[in-house]
Structures are given as structure tokens and as C-alpha cells.
Amino acid sequence: MKEIVYTDQAPAPIGPYSQATVFGNQVFTSGQIAIHPQSGDLITDTIEAETRQVLENLKAVLAAAGCEMSDVLKCSIFICDMNQFQAINAVYAEYFDEAMAPARETVQVAVLPKHVNIEISAIAIRKG
């Protein structure tokens, strides 16, 4: 049975999708962008601040699904400028231990929702 995940600690969906779905012990998050969940503001002052907000939103969705960042098996990262990769990667490393980091891909795209610079989704395994 598919379970729908929702938390007010992450931005509400801006379309016909869920923040995450769970099937068995598998958790699939929707892509998170840098919308502050309480104010609704886009956090795009710097790529570091934007990436941090994206990862905080992802962390909140995972928590609502009963997971931690250490439960993530794979991330998909979409960015508008590959020249920002090093700055994004530095913030990403604050959230994932290099020794146990998930698999991932980073893809440059032309445009993201709300014209943000980065979007991240994840697949995780829920324990128990």
C-alpha cells in the first residue's frame, strides 16, 4: 500500500504531487527547492544558502517519512549552472558523511521550477 507523506516543516507541494511517498520500506521524495516552509520565501541569496535550504527541506520530508539523511540511498541533483558544482558539493558534504554518502547524479538543466538554481530529490530506506 502506498503511503503519502506530508509535513508542514517543508514547503507544501506547488502542483499535483506529494512531498514523498512510501512503499514498503522505500521512501521516494519529490524534488525539493529552496522555499522556506514557514515564510514561503525563496532562499536564493547565494548558492550555498539555497543549497542548505533545499537540504533542510529534504531532511524535513525524510523525517516525516521516518528517515534520517543517513538512510538515503540515492540523490538526484538538478542545477542550472555546473560552474556552481563545487559550492553546492561543499554544502552537500555537510549533510552526508563521505564514507557512507549515497549514490547520486548531478545534472545541469536549462530551467527549474520558480527559476531556482538547484533541486534535489532522494530515495531512502525506512528502518523497521
TrEMBL record:
In terms of Pfam families, this protein maps to: Ribonuc_L-PSP
Show the PANTHER family listed in the entry. Answer: 2-IMINOBUTANOATE/2-IMINOPROPANOATE DEAMINASE RIDA, PROTEIN HMF1-RELATED
A GO molecular function term, named singly, is: deaminase activity
List, alphabetically, the GO terms of the cellular component aspect: cytosol
Protein name (Swiss-Prot/TrEMBL):
RidA family protein
The transmembrane residues are none
Please, which domain of life does this record's source organism belong to? Bacteria
